[in-house]
Amino acid sequence: MMAEKPYNEKLNDSKNMPEAVEITDSKAAFMKEVTAAIIRDGDKILICQRAADDECAMLWEFPGGKRENGETLEECIIREIREELELDIRVLGIFTKSIYHFNNNEIYFTLYNAEIIGGELQRNVHNAVEWVTVEEIGEYDFMPADIGFVEKILKERN
Known about the structure:
Elements: H1 7-10, H2 25-28, E1 31-41, E2 44-49, E3 60-61, E4 64-66, H3 73-85, E5 87-102, E6 105-119, E7 128-133, H4 134-137, H5 144-156
Parallel strand pairs: 1-6
Antiparallel strand pairs: 1-2, 1-4, 2-3, 2-7, 5-6
């Protein structure tokens, strides 16, 4: 029997991440699809600090959220950014995908590259938002599910 890959080897292995996963009622309690975005402004990246009363309180993350039924992943990230930050974005493509296991749930993450095309940045659900350089991003305490994304950003800066 083959041993399961450790999380760090699965993190960016696209063979482990389907392009789209249909959520059914029987799967909904165990599997979630989540999108997030790397939103850049010049050499800065937008990161958000979770609210004090949220799960993983006060940790940093890339903005995004859970896909709703009937919604594509791109529609999800556009909606989430509009709801959380009052920004309109254009999705530029997928940066990476990963699978994360949390509280008996399997979470399928799709991280997009995106650019702002409208709106004015508001902090509707987060404790704080920051524009940081790639060099600064490693100084922040990120949610466990986002650490692999940060590592990939740092690795690709060169």
